[in-house]
Design goal:
Layout lengths: L1 H5 L5 E5 L8 H7 L3 E3 L8 H11 L4 E2 L20 H9 L18 E12 L2 H7 L2 H21 L3 E6 L2 E6 L8 H28 L7 E16 L4 E6 L1 H12 L5 E3 L12 E9 L3 E9 L1
Parallel strand pairs: 1-2, 1-3, 7-9
Antiparallel strand pairs: 4-6, 4-7, 5-6, 7-8, 9-11, 10-11
């Protein structure tokens, strides 16, 4: 509202009819010619009629189609309404979206479950000392361009880049995917990342450079999800033992393979071959793992 007013346009807001019953506030809303919305009543369409007339007179209308913040654990607002689209189609008035961001920062953490994938390029720090800076950036961007597409295709969320490494999270905000489904998606993503590396290396080796090799680790289990950091820098991310274990699996993986937990590789169709391993993971001791070949 302030943005529009400072721009010289006083909007007419559509708001819940309950506001008009609040002492003083309701009087102000009426005097400012704001438009009440009588949801779930036989007067529900009245607001759109008044809004349409206002638009035809050249006035500015402001709507909150998803304005109510709910108790949804992921911070999702209420289900959207079609009013803005109907008004735009009937009057030809342009729709200018204004997004509110930041309210979710006051929300605390929550427990969830999902899968975490770590991938890292072998000896990339050494490579950085052996070739020019422009070539380092070129190779790394070729690599990220390829694997980012793979991550998206498999439903992963690129949580962060860690130098030449990536941390990818697989969660189900609406709860429709169980942990086994998320784990399998993460493993399939890791296997496809290994396969797609051939396309990156075709470009890199054509210029005489050494091919890239990556390690991939995947773990699944409980996670803590929330805003982590300080006032200077907040990051919405996941933390917990599952994240740490995925990082340990990646560090122990053989290049060209995906190292994961047995529970994440129950689908025997994953990979062309597999072998069982026992690794020593810091903070976890001996961990049984399965190493998959793409």
């Amino acid at each position: 509202g302030e943005y529009l007013i400072y721009s010289g346009r006083w909007p007419r807001f559509l708001g819940k009819a309950d506001i008009w019953r609040v002492p003083v506030l309701g009087w102000v809303a009426k005097q400012c010619q704001q438009i009440p919305v009588y949801r779930d009543t036989d007067r529900a369409s009245d607001s759109l009629i008044h809004a349409r007339k206002a638009l035809e007179r050249g006035q500015l209308i402001a709507l909150y189609p998803e304005g109510t913040i709910t108790a949804d654990p992921d911070g999702w607002p209420m289900t959207g309404r079609r009013g803005a689209a109907q008004l735009a189609l009937r009057t030809g008035a342009p729709v200018i979206p204004v997004v509110q961001d930041g309210a979710q920062l006051v929300l605390g953490g929550r427990h969830t479950e999902g899968a975490v994938l770590f991938a890292d390029i072998k000896d990339f720090s050494r490579r950085c000392n052996q070739i020019g800076a422009d070539e380092v950036v070129r190779q790394l961007n070729l690599y990220f361009e390829q694997i980012d597409a793979v991550i998206v295709d498999h439903g992963g969320i690129l949580d962060k880049r860690i130098g030449d490494g990536v941390m990818v999270v697989f969660i189900s905000p609406d709860g429709r995917q169980d942990l086994a489904t998320l784990a399998h998606a993460a493993v399939r993503c890791g296997l496809e990342m290994q396969r797609s590396l051939a396309r990156v290396n075709a470009s890199i080796t054509a210029d005489g450079a050494r091919p890239l090799q990556i390690r991939v680790g995947v773990a699944a289990g409980p996670l803590v999800q929330g805003n982590i950091g300080s006032r200077a820098r907040l990051e919405y991310t996941v933390i917990g033992e599952t994240v740490n274990l995925a990082a340990r699996l990646e560090a122990a993986a053989t290049v060209g393979h995906v190292l994961t937990l047995p529970a994440c590789a129950r689908d025997l169709a994953l990979g062309t071959s597999r072998r069982l391993r026992i690794i020593e993971a810091k903070g976890f001791g001996e961990v049984s793992a399965v190493e998959l070949t793409p």
